Amino acid sequence: MNELNSILTPGSLVRHPAQPDWGLGQVQSNIAGRITVNFQDAGKVVIDGHRVVLELVDLA
């Protein structure tokens, strides 16, 4: 799994780099490289963290 994906914890805000129309997503879980994210416009999606590097969003 990518190093960035390995630090994602429940509550982290992310975007899917290949699916910008999904909107902002909130990580629900990150278990063994399977990252469950609830996206604003796509709902709950399970991401293979070995194939996709999610973009961490900093709203500060």
Features:
5 strands, globular, five-stranded antiparallel sheet, DUF3553, 60 residues, mainly beta
User: Using only CA atoms, what is the Rg?
Assistant: 10 Å
Report the CATH C-level class: Mainly Beta
User: Which blocks of ≥5 consecutive residues have pLDDT under 50?
Assistant: none
- At the fold tier of CATH, the topology name is SH3 type barrels
Put simply, the count of helices is 1
* Domains (count): 1
Return the structural class.
mainly beta
Write the element-wise H/E pattern from the N-terminal end onward: HEEEEE
Please characterize this protein's 3D structure:
It comes from Cognatiyoonia sediminum. It holds the Pfam family DUF3553. This is DUF3553 domain-containing protein. The protein is mainly beta. It has a single domain (3-56), classed as SH3 type barrels (Roll). It is 7% helix and 40% strand. The protein has 1 helix and 5 strands. A 5-stranded antiparallel sheet has the order 4-3-2-1-5. Strand 3 (34-39) and strand 4 form a beta hairpin. The longest helix is centred in the first third of the chain and has 4 residues, at 3-6. The mean pLDDT is 94.
